[in-house]
Amino acid sequence: xxxxxxxxxxxxxxxxxxxxxxxxAPIIKQIPDLRIIELxxxxxxxxxxxxxxxxxxxxxxxxxxxxxDILKEVKAFNKLGMKYFRLGKQxxxxxxxxxxxxxxxxxKQVNPNVLHIxxxxxxxxxxxxxxxxxxxxxxxxxxxxxxxxxxxxxxxEVVKQNNxxxxxxxxxxxxKILNKYGKQRGENGMQxxxxxxxxxFGLIGESKTTNEHNVQWLKRFMDEGLLIRRINIRxxxxxxxxxxxxxx
Length: 248
Known about the structure:
Elements: H1 14-21, E1 37-40, E2 42-43, H2 56-59, E3 63-64, H3 67-79, E4 84-88, H4 99-109, E5 114-117, E6 119-120, H5 122-125, H6 128-140, E7 145-152, H7 156-161, H8 168-182, E8 193-201, H9 210-223, E9 230-235
Parallel strand pairs: 1-4, 4-5, 6-7, 7-8, 8-9
Antiparallel strand pairs: 2-3
Helix pairs in contact: 3-4, 4-6, 6-8
Domain Radical SAM core: 31-248
Organism: marine sediment metagenome
GO molecular function: catalytic activity; iron-sulfur cluster binding
C-alpha cells in the first residue's frame, strides 16, 4: 500500500525534526544541477495580534530551531558538496534569539558560496538589536542578500484594519538602515543586503487611493536614492479561520 494513499496531518516539533534533518540530506543526490538548500529556522509568528490573512497562527505556535541543529544540517549538506544556503520560511529572521550566532558559525565552520536569509519584520530592524543583526548579516552573509519586508500596503487605513506588522514610517526607517549598511557592492558585484518590498491586494479597507499611497512611498524611496532589491505584488489568498475570511 502506498504511503500516499491517504491524507495525514504532520506537524513535527523541532526535537523530532532534528532526528531526520541530517539523515535526509543524501536525498540531494537525486536532484540534478545547482541547488540552493533552504533551511527552516523557525515557525509560527512572534506577534501577539496577527495579520488578517495570516495562517501561521492557525498552523503553529512560535518555535525556534536551535543553532546546533541548524549547523548539523548545514554541515551534512556541505559534506555532500552543497555550497548554496538560504535561511528561509521563518516569519522574521530578526526575531530568532540566535540570529547573529547562526550566520557567524555557518560562515566560520562551513564558509558557503552563498548564504542568504528570507523574511524580515521592519519593526525589528529599527531596534538597537536589529541594527546589530543587520551589520552581522552584511558581514557574514553573501552579496545579493534580500530582507523580504511583508509591508503588504502603505495605506494607513489598510494597515490598521488588517493588523499589518509595519506602518509606512517604520518601513521607511528600516529601508534606510539596510541601505546604510548593505548598499555597498560585494564580491559578485551585487549590493550586499537590501530590502525587498512585498505588496498585497485584496485586503480589508482598500480604496481607490490605496495604490496611490503605495506609489507615493515607493517614489519617495527612489527620490531619496534608497535602493530596493525587488518588489513583489500579489493578490491575497483567503483561508478559513483567518479574520479576513469573515469579511468576504
